Amino acid sequence: MTEQKPSAPSHPVSRRHPGGVEHENHPHHDHFTVVGNHLLQHPELSLTAIGLAVHIQSLPAGTPVGIKSLAGKFPEGEIRIAAALRELEEHGYLARTKERLQSGRVVTRTVSRNKPRAAFAMAAQPARPVVGEPPFPVPGPVMDAPVTEQAADPVANPVATELLARLRVHDSRLLLTERDVRRLAPAVVAWLERGVPPTAVERTLTAGLPQEPIRHPAAFLERRLTSDLPPALPAPRTPAPGLRRPDPLQTCDGCERAFRAARPGRCRDCRQSPLPAQVAA
């Protein structure tokens, strides 16, 4: 007869993760977003910023992600959401640039990045030299006299390398190799040094693409970068003594309009409280 052990547990006890979290995972076949652990386990981002980044990455393109629209969805409020957006900007998960429309109005363009350092890592890998390849003509810096010194290493200009690597998102025919990115990056830097915003350079390279196949995307982009290079901006005038330079443009944390201030914050209209009722004398 088998000996009974009344003290034995009725259910087996898992010893894989004692006291820790256990996962019950089921595959998703639709309506899901792939998010990297570099964001979900970021050691410097707040939980509000991580959650906000995941939410923005799950939205379809064109969805408003302004401070007011986000505050209307979540209970955190405009101040905490504005602070979280600034965190994402500092770590490269979000880019907010100011653009002036033809009407003269300044608007904010927001770009969400699910892996902000992907293009940087690709450009940082050493490129294999190609025997017999002619050097790429690099436009000189903005100076009156010709300059013979070489352009800066494109790895030190991540904006240029990321811009070139991202062109394939607009059109798959603009897919560049790692070597092409490194070769064309100095030409993009020449545009940036002449005061052209990265968004304007990107529009110039992707606007009016031909209908036929682009067999050599690097040569096609090279022609646009060299033939359409804008002139240098005139030297700024020296301000008269006693005149203070205007404050830089900031994006309002309340309405996202552009306003001039020394530090980020809210514009005058958003800071201004309702006028108090007048008291009769």
Overall description:
It is a single chain. This protein has 281 residues and is mostly helical. Among the domains are: 76 residues, Arc Repressor Mutant, subunit A (Orthogonal Bundle), CATH 1.10.10; 110 residues, no CATH class. It has eleven helices and four strands; from the N terminus they run ααααββααααααββα. A hairpin with a 6-residue loop joins strand 3 and strand 4. The termini are far apart. The relative contact order is 0.09.
Rg calc: 27 Å
| Helicity, as a percent range | 25-40%
Quick one: biggest sheet?
2 strands, antiparallel
State the distance separating the first and last CA atoms. 104 Å
Strand order of the largest sheet: 1-2
Given the C-alpha coordinates, what overall shape results? globular
What is the number of helical segments per DSSP (H or I, 4+ residues)? Answer: 11
Question: What fraction of the residues are assigned to beta strands by DSSP?
Answer: 5-15%
Number of strands: 4
Low-confidence stretches: 122-156, 275-281
> Would you tell me the overall average pLDDT?
75
SSE ordering: HHHHEEHHHHHHEEH
By helix and strand content, what is the structural category?
Answer: mainly alpha
Summarize the structure.
This protein has 281 residues and is mostly helical. It is built from eleven helices and four strands, in the order H-H-H-H-E-E-H-H-H-H-H-H-E-E-H.
Task: Name the descriptors.
281 residues; mainly alpha; Arc Repressor Mutant, subunit A; two-stranded antiparallel sheet; two-stranded antiparallel ribbon; 11 helices
